[in-house]
């Protein structure tokens, strides 16, 4: 595997069908599952690693976001990727940029409502990666449900030829969705954080039992978080998989997205719900059976 710093080098190494896995680093099994999917489907697998300042708000964790290039390079190599593209700030943003990619409507609610400018930052950096790396396919986690909707829409609207692939959520053994930000949690916060995935799992059960009301499903998601001390719910919303707009009823492919704050850490989770024949099938993703590589040995 080669680590490169420039778009030109990354592009030159992209032979055949190129699969791109965009990340902000401090990798875990969720990221590795995206690399695995790209490895199965592409000739060249390129992982990008860039902590994108544009998508952080002024009071967010840009400075403290975990970074360890050596650790990440070893993991990406072990996962069988061909290229690690780790640009410096000056490669990604040379000089003052006058261009921002804004995806309207799908970014209005949920994360977009609470983090002004966040999805402009995401859409702009992903568009730059698509233009600079020229991937045939790009892999994103379903964990960031509204981000996936935004990236799909940006790709279609700007006529990028890249195929967007969404992959299932990878969870810790107790159900907590993996996130680089889980490393911020102390043990009391870690306990409180579990309530998020309990809520999401309860939604999956309720859907299987026949619940279709958006308000009911949202209450089911919120209840364990609201009952738990030390965690504050930002939202629990049933949203359309295509538009991210809030749904009154489960009548089209949807995801029930939850965001909550534990201490200084914001955590996201969701369950995707797809139609299958006459019924609705919730997908909670997969659980690890051992502690995550986030906390120690790869
Ligand atoms: P990040 O490094 O947090 O920007 O995430 C990079 C990519 O990994 C995004 O497409 C995320 O949705 C995806 N990702 C993050 N956490 C998970 C997870 N637990 N399961 C699956 N994909 C994930």
Bound molecules: adenosine monophosphate
- Helix count, per DSSP? 9
Computed structural class: alpha/beta
Shape: globular
State mean pLDDT (0 to 100 scale): 97
Oligomeric category: single chain
Distance between the termini: 17 Å
Radius of gyration from the alpha-carbon trace, in angstroms:
19 Å
Side-by-side strand order of the widest sheet:
1-4-3-2-5-6
Instruction: Summarize the main sheet.
Output: 6 strands, parallel
**Percent helix range:** 25-40%
Strand residue content: 15-25%
Runs in which pLDDT lies below 50 for 5 or more consecutive residues are none
- Topology, number of strands: 12
What does this 3D model show about the protein?
The chain is α/β, with parallel strands linked by helices. The chain is built from 9 helices and 12 strands. The strands form 3 sheets. It has a 6-stranded parallel beta sheet with strand order 1-4-3-2-5-6, with helices on both faces. Strands 8-9-10-11 form a 4-stranded antiparallel beta sheet, with helices on one face. Strands 7-12 form a two-stranded parallel ribbon. The mean pLDDT is 97. The structure holds adenosine monophosphate (AMP). The site of adenosine monophosphate has 17 residues, from helix 2 and strand 5.
